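User: structure tokens for this one?
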Amino acid sequence: KDIDFIFGLIFLILFLYFLWLKRKEEKIIFAGILFLVNFLFHSNTIIPLNGNLREHWMYLGSIGFFIYFVLLIEKINKEKLKLILTILIFTLYGTRTILRNYDWNNEVKFYEKTLKLGFENEKIYYNIGVIKYRNKDYENALNIFLKVEPHFKNKKKIYTAIAGCYANLKKTDLAIEFYNKILELDPYNPYALCSLATIYYNERKKDISEILNILKTCIEKNPLYRQAYVALGRIFYENGNYQKSIDFLKIAISLDPNDDFSHLLLGISYFYIGNKELAEKHLNIAYNLNPLNLENIQNLAFFYKTIGNYRKAIILYQKVLDLKPDSLEILNDLGLCYAMIGEKEKAKSIWKEILKKDPNFQPAKENIKIIEKEN
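Assistant:
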């Protein structure tokens, strides 16, 4: 790094000396000043910027650099030599551009190349960690976040990243520790409050009333934080209080109409209180928003089977089997739907197929007995 600085300083001094010598030649002075002014404003020497010198910041200044190439070529008398020099310049810079594009081809590769060139910066490491986190490589992401944490100025941001890694790695005690560190800095941070409540609920680390109080505090201080309403809707749904679940899920959907999970829970909750019309509406919305989600397809199929719309249920159960071909329970339900529309032989063949896979699957045995008795 010191060598780079020394060579750069020597080059700058020589360049300034060159401009002094050519101070009466307007083209050279114009091009040189254009380059220098652009460089000085982006070099962090006058105004501190939010990063090291970026190559795209020098696009305007590079015009001055290219003017020097043109002036150099104009001084050559031989046309062939001009052509050769022009081709050489374009070839060299074209090759360098292609090689640089390989660095931009992959985010992690780009950041690693930046580090390799000596630009040690905690934000670059953090960005690599975020990419690994998004790719669900939580172990390596965590190692990076822990490495940069002592030097990272935005503690809330780095604690959030670390807590998320621990939560996904099922190291809940450590996740709780870092969520609490966030709350020490920001007592009503909605992400930390909601995440803590979810961990406490999933792990049964707190009484349900304490968990509900955490989420209600989160909503009081952050009324637009959708995830808190979703969490409350889920808790009330799983504890059989469907009307309260509906109340909170409706608010969650008003904040984000494209949240398929909230529509799914809302549809099931409506089903349990006997409102089949709204149940069908929201189950279909969930399915249309995310048609490849297994739970969305399966719950809609079960709904149509339950209300007696077996043909729609059959279509949906077949889609479930495309995603989960080894599910004997789904195959069994598919057989029941075929039996209910009168295709009893097809139903029987499905149940026999189940028994080939699992001879002890009792529902299929009983369904075959019932079919055979009816015949």
